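P.,

For your records, the input lines for the assembly:
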Amino acid sequence: MLFKKPSDIPSSEITPKAAYLNRRKFITGAAATGAAIAAGLYLRNSGGHEAQAAGAKLTGIVKSQFSVTEAPTSFKDITNYNNYYEFSTDKYAPNGLSANFRTRPWTVAIEGLVKKPQRLDIDAITKLASLEERIYRHRCVEGWSMVIPWVGYPLSVLINKAEPLGSAKFVAFETIFAPDQMPNQRSTSVLPWPYVEGLRMDEAMHPLTILVLGLYDEVLPNVDGAPLRLAVPWKYGFKSIKAIVKIKFTDKMPSTTWNIMAPEEYGFYSNVNPTVDHPRWSQATERKIGSSIFAPKQPTLMFNGYGDKVASLYSGMDLRKNY
Amino acid sequence: MALLPEKLIRIIKLPVFLLCLGPLSVLVWKGFHDRLGANPVDVITRTTGRWTLTFLLIALSVTPARKLLHMPWLIRYRRMLGLFAFFYGSLHLMTYVWLDKFFDVPMMLHDIAKRRFITAGMTAWTLMLPLALTSTSGWIRRLGGKRWQKLHRLIYLSAIAGVIHFIWLVKADLRRPLTYGAILAVLLLYRIAAWAITRFRPKEPLAVAEARPGS
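Structure tokens returned:
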């Protein structure tokens, strides 16, 4: 494809995921038998939790008016190219390294300035609201982008369940700390662990902000932050924290991992903004994953193209200062 | 062991040359077989960049290796190794100019001026350019051995700029660029030590060394 076909491939030419998986099935027949036995043993040992492992089909997904009309990036690219520093700083490695990551049992602690602090099981969280397909643009701070058919529901559903106090101004999120399963967490030379992120209350309550539980029509793959992550489509990808175990409501702006690492490079807001360059590279354009290598990069849009829905959140703010 | 017959040195040159083309061959093969992953431009950029630094370090290892291992004939491969560093460096630069910036000259000038890691990378490549151009025997003659050698010390600056380029572009986790930096530091320290020894040592042992035939 790379050298033979310099023009963009029409989406009709992209191998449908089912066909691609079918071919793989032929090759992996023997391996699957072994995996099935292993999975059976695992399920028996994990105390009869529902078989909601990555790869299982999700049903009853409804379409959303917030989806974009662009053709989604292939399942293969979405699950083989991403930043998940807990596993590796190499974007191609997390897929393999996260294969055995345990997403059951899993509970999420909701605490801080709320009327009803609680611990919720992941299977209960999955059933809190009907699942929607949200096809979102995803823009990484590094200058590449995808179009991802997330499955989930608005974060506001979960927030309302906890009944935040009037004093709650921000929401802080925390990724699991599991150095036995996440190799890079064994050393602090990569990032300080666990990974933490945060949103202002109105950003967290915004209808575009979703809790993600699936990808395409499947349970969220481990590599993309299973069992649950955020998708905040008008912000750079690193704001959409993965493998969440804690949600805390606070009255102060919470620390966020990349802001701790390099405050002059990554601000708390980190809204996609083509006019504010990263100190080390331009944010004016992006490489769309899946396009031909000879295709020029495409222009990046303010708020990643979601300006009509979110710009009002920041009216009166200097986005150069509040990057 | 110390001396290889002229003929053998020449014969070995071809396989060494082909080996040096290995990383490029792998890249081209992957390109034709759709194996460059989700972001091929990123892979091409990283691969050519890493091999540029690797060849620079290999070329800089030739002098210490031939002295320490008493293999003076290794010098016969240094030019080729150095030119491969320049070759991969030029591919790396072309990837940036063509596939990343799409020949957008104002954008590139803006980048070079504003982004320090690009400034460092451009410096590293630019410093290699005169060395590649004067790598022929004709130019060694024209410049004279001493002056040619002085000019070619620019390679130290180029390698330092290359490692700084790598360090500055990394978001977090400096282990890889620092490994290149550590190896470069050892290779440069060897030169400083060698220089200090010839500078400050009494004449006597030097004369002995020089009297040894064939070294």
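Two observations worth noting. Residues 39-51 of chain A have pLDDT under 50 and may be disordered. Chain A has eight helices and 13 strands.

Regards
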